[in-house]
Amino acid sequence: METLYNRIANRSLERLAALSDGVFAFAMTLLVLDLRVPAMEAVHSERDLWHVLVMLAPRILMYLMSFLTLGIFWNGQQTQLNYIARGDRNLAWIHIAFLFGVTLTPFSTQLLAGFIAYRTALLVYWLNILLLGVVLYASWKYAGRKGLVREDTPVEIRRAICRRVVIAQSLYAFGALLCVISTRWSIAWIFAIQLNYAIAPCIPKLGVFEGKRP
Question: What's the pLDDT score for residue 196?
């Protein structure tokens, strides 16, 4: 009976997509909670206000970078689900593991924003991104191996989904290595990657990060 239950469980992709949308929305909302309005007691002039806003700049950058991160991974997950014909129990748990990584993002973002010069904080942030990428890649490979992908999905699309994850994670890994020089170099590189994946469809020349010719 248990085997039969496992066979019929978690076949609804709509429920999985709905859960994912809710978790992503909540995690993206939590990110902004790290941005706090300056205390009125510390501001007595326009100059004071500009000063505290400048001091807040690293946290604003981390917020923007992580918001883009979650947006990119949400798009990646939705793209996969669009080409999967049906789900199963194992696929559902793989995506729940993916959502676990999503819920960790506000923590890793706050850690990096608070300790922006520390390599450990940068590496924790990168490991969060790595977890998301590895699980998303595993999801697609599992769906293909188990015949869950729609039969009319072209081979080019199947390969493109895998290639995108591998290239992106390779670029993120290179960015993490830059922390040997400075964590700020790592952050600048990762932020550039995020911007590329967010706006590359509009600017073909940036397609070099997708493994395409400019």
Answer: 87
